[in-house]
Amino acid sequence: MIKILVHIGATAAALFFMPSFIDGISVAGTYTAVIVALIWGLVSITIRPILGLLTLPINLITFGLFSFILNALLFWFVASFVQGFEVAGFVAALLGSVVLTLVSWVVDAAL
To answer: How far apart are CA 13 and CA 100, in angstroms?
Structure first.
């Protein structure tokens, strides 16, 4: 339980500070960052595995690089229905999803 809370907190912190170094991403406040972190977690454990399985042939052809595109599209998808969280374009979504992936990787390694 504590691992999940730390993961959500780290994701929310990354989302809160992301607009300061990635142009095209805006977060209205701390509450919005926490909501986006929760929704990102739900999308990551429900939708991403299904899409990963469906896009497996493309992923094999591109040696796994298509997973970056899939994560960016999911990041953009989350931004499309959360009020106060905006992603201006695909490049911003790609950079934001890479940052969230790195944060998740560091938190998993630390715990």
So the answer is: 10
Q: How confident is the model over 51-63, as pLDDT tens digits?
A: 989 999 999 999 9
Structure tokens at 21: 């170094």
Give the structural domain span for 8. 2-110
- What is the pTM for the complete model shown? 0.88
How many residues can be counted in the chain?
A: 111
Distance CA 64, CA 29 (A): 34
Domains contained in the chain, number: 1
pLDDT value at 72 more than 90: yes
In 3D space, the residue among 67, 61, 8 whose CA is nearest the CA of residue 35 turns out to be: 8
Amino acid residing at 57: P
Half-sphere exposure of 77 (CA within 13 A, CB side): 13
